[in-house]
Amino acid sequence: MEQQFMKTAFFDFDGVVVDTEPIYDIYWNEAGERYQTGIPNFASHIKGTTLPYILDKYFSDRSEEFKEMVTRESMDFEQKMPFPPVPGAMEFIHLLKGKGVKVGLVTSSDNAKLERAFRLLKLDNLFDTVVSADRITKGKPDPMCYQLAASNLHVSPADCLVFEDSFAGIQAGTNAGMRVIGLSTTNSEESLKDKVYQVIPDFQNITFEEYQKW
Fold first, then answer.
1. Which residues form a coiled coil (predicted)?
2. pTM for the structure as a whole
3. Contact 41, 29 (CB under 8 A)
């Protein structure tokens, strides 16, 4: 009967399943200059957030045409970008699935990007639920996305474990009442350790026994 006590696992996408954050850093820092935001290292300010959030927070005073251009350029970029997996991530998700753990993907990415990523990485039918930016009205750090994922799978937030790399995502998982494991793929272990239950560099050598302890 041990299966009842296995926590449900929710994974963020960028920086957790795929190591895309360095790719995004280059794109958004360059875009931040091109769009004349006046914010140095613009990418660091928007990690883990949705495109509507970025438009609303940083470009609310710009024209609709400008916002449409930002959206179009971002979507064009995401239709060409590579998706290098975080070391051990795919193997770990398959390990959990093999043990009967329910797994979900909870991401600020939109469906168009995810469809391409799922096709390239062969992720179809792997996750028991997928919560994308298209399914929520309030993005991370709001807990709505994780609350929806738990509701989809009929599990209590207290019985869920979240894997996150960004401060916005960690806050979302924590605010949803879930235990968060932080990946130091985007931010340093030092900056994460007081915000999460445990920090891991990636999923290499993470055993099922460790998962059960979490």
1. none
2. 0.91
3. yes
